[in-house]
Amino acid sequence: MDIISQLQQEANTIAALAFNTFGTVLQRDTPPVRLSPNYPEPPPNNPADDAAPNFFEQPKLLIIALIKATKQFDSLVAALPLSDGGEEAQLKRIAELQAENDAVGPELQ
């Protein structure tokens, strides 16, 4: 698998872990709130007695996995090859490509 595919896969992993981590904290662990006086009082948000023993450890484990995934992403970015000429050459090339697009753009419209 090439490095760009690995970066994309790691970005997807980070997104999924972030979604699950924040969802766990926001949906499961926050206390219920009464939306209106017309609604009954919400039930207390206590974990079930028969819940898995890692109920309170799950957010910590998700955060650890999220940190590991971001470190892996950073190491993949660091492994990317440097382009020739540095940043100035890249900016010059971008300007050239934009000029080409501007010259071709009106003809396509």
UniProtKB/TrEMBL annotation:
Location(s), subcellular: Nucleus
Record-linked Gene3D superfamilies: Mediator complex, subunit Med21
GO MF term list: transcription coregulator activity
Region listing for Disordered, in residue ranges: 29-53
Major subcellular site: nucleus
Domain of life: Eukaryota
Keyword Transcription regulation applies: yes
One CC-aspect GO term: mediator complex
GO BP: regulation of transcription by RNA polymerase II
Recorded family membership: Belongs to the Mediator complex subunit 21 family.
Known partners and oligomeric status: Component of the Mediator complex.
Biological function: Component of the Mediator complex, a coactivator involved in the regulated transcription of nearly all RNA polymerase II-dependent genes. Mediator functions as a bridge to convey information from gene-specific regulatory proteins to the basal RNA polymerase II transcription machinery. Mediator is recruited to promoters by direct interactions with regulatory proteins and serves as a scaffold for the assembly of a functional preinitiation complex with RNA polymerase II and the general transcription factors.
The protein, known as: Mediator of RNA polymerase II transcription subunit 21
Protein's gene: LOC109013170
